[in-house]
Amino acid sequence: MSEVRRDIVTDTWVIIDTENDEIPKVPVGDSGLSADCPFCEGHEGQTPSEIYAIRENGAPNRPGWRLRVIPNIHPILKIEGELVKSGVGVYDMVSGIGANEVIVETPEHVTNFSKLSEEQITLVLGTYRQRIEDLHRDKRMRYILIFKNHGPLAGASTMAHTHSDLIALPATPVRIKQKLYGAQEYYSYKERCLFCDIIQQEIEMADRLIFQSDEFVVLAPYASRFPFEILILPKRHCYTYKEINDKEINDLAKALKKVCQAVYEILEDPPYNLILCDSPNLLPKASYWATIRADFHWHIEITPRMYRTTGFELGTGFYINHIAPEKAAAMFRGQL
Q: Are 206 and 329 contacting, i.e. CB atoms less than 8 angstroms apart?
């Protein structure tokens, strides 16, 4: 019999199929190999001028880099201009101010994040921190979303070269607000961080725990929305990713490498989304989310996309997950 589980953080509901053991198969896509890939070293002239780079040698926009950050060639939001808020009858509108960047994670034509070395992943994670710190200095930017789409079914572009996307928004997304409200309400009642309590409980119960490192816990969420959904949480309470330290970045690189290899091997290179769930920028309003430093806890979500969203999910806000998180965690543990 299925179970209907509530996500205590977002107050959303998920239908869990507790009896199914079959791993769904997804179509195998094109590898995207191309001698003309604009993200490869030596093709810098085919991209916009870099915003940030980690280099061993060479001038900007020339070979010799280990990682580059460039503007998206087709940005959905632009950094130029003033942030203007206006009313349109009963509706609210904000001007399309923001930033749209691409983090090119390696100069080599690697198409799968799991194939990067731990050292290279460390550079990627350090760049996430640098870009959030930089963009948080701009009061127009309310929220910095960093994410990775792998595979067409996960919304990936035709650019197969492994990369992450960054979008700076003039407003805080509703799903982040759900998490913030959930964490704030829990803290106001118990005076403890909800995420810290989740970490402690999942370690004690262990049935959804995939593994833990020195600095991080990797688990299958209790109300996983998608089959084989993964949640990565820092053990140290920290409300924002920009306060991650170098030791944690090194440890997170090892954990991410391990997790992504397991996803690749167990699920046969499925499409997935990786999302860094961070706190909003507190600079624009001094009183914004007043208790956030005590009640929120940044984290990473990895969601393999084994099924398409249906009218049921869109019509109800419920998700249907055909693999129980306890079973998914056991499969991952068996691989690691």
A: no
